[in-house]
User: Fold this.
Amino acid sequence: MSNTTDPGWRPMSVTSQWALIPPPPPPPPYNPPAPRPGRPRWLIPLVIIVSVAVVAVGVVTVLRNQRIVAPAAPTPGQAFAWAATIGGSGRDGFNAGAVAGDGTIVAAGETASTDGDFAGGQAGAVVARFSQYGQLMWAHAYGSGNINMFDDVAVRQDGRIVAVGREVTGNSSSALITCLNPGGTLAWSKSLSTSDSGDSRARFTGVAVAGDGSMVVVGEARGGGDFAGAGEGTAVVARFAAGGDLLWAKTLGEAEQVELLDVAVAPDGRIVVSGSTTATSGDFAGGGDFADGTAIAASLTADGEPVWAKPLGSRDTKMTSVAVQDDGTIVGTIVSSSADAGVASLTRDGDITWVSPMGAWKPVPTSQYDGLYGIATGPGSQIVAVGAVATDKASTEADGAVVTRLTSDGIVLWSGVFTSSGFNGVTLTRDGNIVTVGSSCSEYGDFPATKGGCDALVVSIQQ
Assistant:
């Protein structure tokens, strides 16, 4: 296990793993524009009632290292508040986001750019912090010449930021967990491998913070090394103390049978995980030996011992994200190789209460592929799911990012699409506003033109 505890950011050099992306000068005070008429930008189909929401043409504000879209006419019910992008000529994107206690937004993902907003930096995993109005506060990239990326991020009650992903060197990959101070300086970073011989296969895909400040992570670990004694499976669940010490690590299922993609911690301390399984027997049996597995949700004790596991789909499905409501209800997003997606709800004991298939409320009826990759719950038991759709329209019509709000009973309140983009993660503010992250990959559409590749994207939608 490699361990980095450098208390600050070193000047960028060929040996520096952490590179600072200079923040912009302090922005002027934000004054929301007065409402005025605007042209329709996207349509909101409803399951029970049908209405049309008008999203106005944005006023583009260009800041150093950032572009912000501030629409002129908020629409009651679902108002597109702002969108911010950072990027260069490479492919950049955010995979997850979280809202801190002070209302600021933290996003994590990856960058393949060393120019544009990332000029002078290194390609790799990236973490950025934005104000509640979309101004970039700071961004840092973790490079060192390796192929690094962050898959998930969380903010602890003490304000520290925890991001997880992988660090790749040659043909070897290690599971990466990094802790940052609120101002963006490095607190500590650890890279866990399954082998010392250069053929490690490990990765963390999800992180959740428990009430005591400890962090529960899920992912993949093939072999021994830092995960020796964890078991014979390849799907790993681990718990780290607030200071970064590994408390325990365990694998679920047998070799290559279970894949874990996301994790949540319930109010009572239980651990809930989601992913897929190909097992036909045992605790994580999916009911069929399918090539790409069956979607599964599972509940574990605070010590990582299995309580129950529930298959949630037919063949070749995955539960890509999971969240737990205050009453213990579990919700998650499901995708399938047949290009369909949906949202499912389970009781705290694993009984399925409802499934809302995306095919019943497609925001783009002509889409060839529907995918949901992020889910969040918030005030009033509202559920928000995000993802992407691909259409069969002319080549000038790019993929679209989808955001959908549902009731606690699975009824779709509204669903809409932003063109030329895709959403990977979503979180909710304390007052229920939606913050979703992903990438924007076009010079046209609902967001500012990119800088040559795909730009990392943060969008705020007011309720």
